[in-house]
Fold this protein.
Amino acid sequence: MPRRNRERRSAPRSGPRPVGAALGASRVEPGPDGDWMVRSVPAAQATKTYRCPGCDHEIRPGIPHVVAWPADHGGAEERRHWHGGCWHARHRRGPTRRWS
């Protein structure tokens, strides 16, 4: 006898989501160049094109990436969008001249 597919029901959300929940929580990552606040941006939330300071290539909409800024500076002008691999390799190659 064939199996019946049941309708999937998602649980209703209770209350508003915390600020930043869609983008992921910020975390502090220590490094030789100081402490950095880092936030992961999932593909579904990546809606704009950015230029990665690590490789100088575009981060297109729909590509998951990270946003990083110095922990001691909270200004939006200090935030940079990085490919995940470029962010993890930044100690080996540093930012491109365009960003520095």
